[in-house]
Amino acid sequence: MSQSPKIGALAVVLHQDKVLLVQRSKQPDKGLWGFPGGHVEWGETVLQAAQRELREETSVIAEPSHYLRNLDLLRHDKAGQVLSHYLLVGVACRYRSGTPQAGDDALDARWFAIEQIRRGDLPMSARVIDLLEHAIRADQASADLVSRP
């Protein structure tokens, strides 16, 4: 049987020196904090999937603007066999409206100060900090372009 990686979209929303995270209610990463996201559905772009998953998991409305980075996530059993294979695509999203409320696949949803995430004192999914830092750099670069005379 031929298998293919599953594609997942992660919505990265920065707003007023905060970042929006959800606490996962299901495996993988049950109980850990991470970016809202989930599977890309057939006929849907990754940008559309990020926007939909964000709304379903948090009730927050944001406009997807651009791709940030791709993350390969492979989980193996003790014998080294691949149990799951995801290609996660980080999507920068501009906050529009809404107050975070956990829905769909989330136990909780809330804004966190970027500095709290950088300290790493929250139980988080792998690579949350790396993707956050990449999003901050991309956000600053686009702000620098806009502010140039």
UniProtKB/TrEMBL annotation:
Signal peptide feature range: none
Domain of life: Bacteria
Keyword Nucleotide-binding: no
Coiled-coil ranges per UniProt: none
Domain Nudix hydrolase: 4-135
Keywords from the UniProt entry: Hydrolase
SUPFAM superfamilies: Nudix
Keyword Lyase: no
Pfam families, per database record: NUDIX
The protein, known as: NUDIX domain-containing protein
